[in-house]
Specification:
Elements: E1 6-13, E2 16-21, E3 25-30, E4 44-50, E5 53-59, H1 60-63, E6 76-82, E7 89-95, E8 97-104, E9 124-130, E10 133-138, H2 140-144, H3 150-162
Parallel strand pairs: 2-10, 5-7
Antiparallel strand pairs: 1-2, 1-8, 3-6, 4-5, 6-7, 9-10
Protein name: Chemotaxis protein CheW
Pfam families: CheW
InterPro entries: CheW, CheW-like_dom_sf, CheW-lke_dom
Length: about 160
């Protein structure tokens, strides 16, 4: 492994492969019991108690505009840390499956095109080829620091205070 390589966790949504910074991943786990919350957006499946913290569980298919599909034995939850160190927040993301840990040279990552994907390009850090397939590198900070997640953060904090 080259010291400059970026380590990514790859996962699938539909026929597409996405990558996220492996240092943000806290845990990969099978789907378990998720406590539903009232008055939450459709992409919020609820919360789980994760190491004594209330963690919102978000459906990445819904966030990215994919058609809903039944969850199966390959569907997993990836608990990730988003935000700045010290101000970060844990979020569980539901993905179709986890693929590999990928090491990629920064020079191999290309700028994302403006059209042709279900993901808004503001969420993309770039794209690269891995084993003949295109992998979209996501920015968790851009996804979860948008205005639409502010209300969700407040709701989860309120639920944590009541727990």
């Amino acid at each position: 492994m080259n010291i400059d390589e970026v380590q990514l966790l790859s996962f699938t949504l539909g026929d597409n492969i996405y990558g996220i910074d492996i240092t943000r991943v806290q845990e990969i786990r099978a789907l378990g019991e998720i406590r539903e919350l009232p008055n939450t957006p459709s992409y919020c499946m609820g919360v789980i108690d994760f190491r004594n913290s209330m963690v919102p569980i978000l459906d990445m298919r819904d966030i990215f505009g994919y058609t809903a599909k039944p969850m199966d034995k390959q569907t997993v939850m990836v608990v990730v840390s988003v935000g700045e160190p010290g101000k970060d927040m844990l979020v569980g993301i539901i993905v179709d499956s986890v693929s590999d840990v990928i090491a990629v040279e920064p020079s191999e990552i290309r700028k994302s095109p403006k059209l042709g994907h279900n993901v808004d390009t503001e969420f993309m850090k770039g794209m690269f080829k891995y084993q003949g397939k295109i992998v979209v590198l996501l920015s968790l900070e851009c996804i979860f620091e948008t205005d639409k997640f502010d209300d969700l953060k407040t709701l989860v904090e309120q639920q944590a205070e009541m727990a």
